[in-house]
Specification:
The structure is a single chain. 42% of the residues lie in helices and 19% in strands. It has helices at residues 15-23, 50-59, 88-96, 122-153, 157-174, 189-194, 219-231, 240-247, 251-261, 267-279, 303-310, 312-316, 326-331, 335-340, and strands at 4-8, 41-46, 63-65, 68-73, 100-106, 203-208, 234-238, 281-287, 291-298, 318-324, 345-347, 358-363. α1 runs parallel beside α8 (240-247) and α4 (122-153) packs antiparallel against α5 (157-174). The chain is flat. Mean pLDDT is 85; it is low at 25-38.
């Protein structure tokens, strides 16, 4: 599995420019006016991972297949979105379908690009978006709880659980805090996720800075960093302008351009890594002469569950997983060397897959 990240932000903060750069397409119209993205634009990108190339080189794989990440560029938000202002209803419906939210915040000064509120204040912009999500959640919760009354009176256990969780979320929201701060017990985790509350989505703040500030950021991005740390959220500094330029270059030219700018890697790499950490994701590999392929799983995934990401039958008929740690695979110069040096392990159903594991699954059909 990959994961789906919604790119949100007030109008004219650079989110469509960033989307265009990330997906290397021009399908999102980047223009200097609000609501230039009317429908959500969806783009898939391969997740860059240098390990995959090294594995493929050793195995002589004919094809390299990275895992995928989906970006959804969602229509610009304005104050009052929770009440349907601007394109609010579309925005709120589209965001429900994502795994995480990337708040693109304007951290650049440019008199030629108008700000919807006439000023550059990324912390206030973040609060505007958060407030609209929370208000929408409150309205949704009130309607849903009212609709559960009859089922609760009829002693419906699922309805009672749902109402209890909604009440906890409502109490948190009424304190002016997002629902993701509610502490949820393990037995309630599935039901909690099914509520699909907007303010439970993990948040990554993307500080869009000018070209000259892409390495160290600026005063605006510094304030976002403080806010993110206080909330326990993550942030990354990116220049959407630079990313757009890089997206038009060949790999060698892009690397030279990055070095000239004093950057070690493209913003896409930083954004994906931050997204992985945000959602507690990791990667395992399958490697052979035909293909070297990366697979995304959540941290704590068992070997049968990891096999199920490839095909449901692999999980149902799981016998064992022949497993080599990435470092051992490289040091042993491949599968045969790992076998000979005793670095290949036979792991059973209780094995928790580790990031970078090279795996081959045996299963009954």
């Amino acid at each position: 599995m990959g994961f789906k990240m919604g790119i949100v932000g007030l109008p004219n903060v650079g989110k469509s420019t960033l989307f265009n750069a990330l997906t290397k397409t021009a399908s999102a119209q980047a223009a200097n006016f609000p609501f230039c993205t009317i429908e959500p634009n969806v783009g898939e990108v391969g997740v860059p991972d240098a390990r995959l190339d090294k594995l493929a080189a050793i195995a002589g794989s004919k094809q390299i297949i990275p895992t995928r990440m989906t970006f959804v560029d969602i229509a610009g938000l304005v104050k009052g979105a929770s009440k349907g202002e601007g394109l609010g209803n579309q925005f709120l419906a589209n965001i429900r379908e994502t795994d995480a939210i990337a708040h693109v915040l304007r951290c650049f000064e440019d008199g030629d690009v108008t700000h919807v509120d006439g000023r550059v204040d990324p912390v206030a912009d973040a609060e505007t978006i958060e407030t609209e999500l929370m208000l929408a959640d409150l309205e949704s919760i009130e309607k849903r709880r009212a609709g559960l009354v009859r089922k609760i009176k009829g002693n419906d256990k699922d309805a009672q659980q749902q109402d209890r969780l909604l009440a906890e979320a409502q109490a948190m929201l009424e304190e002016g805090k997002p629902a993701r701060l509610v502490e949820v017990d393990e037995e309630d985790a599935k039901a909690w996720k099914m509520l699909q509350l907007l303010s439970t989505k993990p948040v990554l703040y993307v500080c869009n800075v000018g070209e000259s500030e892409s390495v160290d950021g600026n005063e605006h991005s510094g304030k976002v960093a403080e806010m993110a740390a206080a909330q326990g959220n993550a942030h990354v500094i990116i220049s959407a302008q630079i990313e757009e330029e890089i997206s038009q270059l060949e790999a060698d030219e892009a690397q030279m351009f990055l070095e000239e700018m004093g950057l070690e890697e493209a913003g896409l790499d930083r954004l994906i890594r931050a997204g992985y950490e945000l959602l507690h994701l990791e990667t395992y590999f399958t490697v052979g002469p035909k293909e070297a392929r990366a697979w995304t799983i959540r941290q704590g995934t068992s070997a049968p569950q990891a096999a199920g990401v490839i095909h449901g039958d692999f999980e149902k008929g799981f016998i064992r997983a022949e497993t080599i740690a990435y470092d051992d695979y490289i040091a042993s110069n491949g599968e045969q060397g790992a076998k000979e040096s005793g670095k290949m392990r036979a792991e059973g159903k209780s094995y928790i897959v580790q990031d970078g594991d090279v795996m081959h699954f045996l299963f009954n059909t």
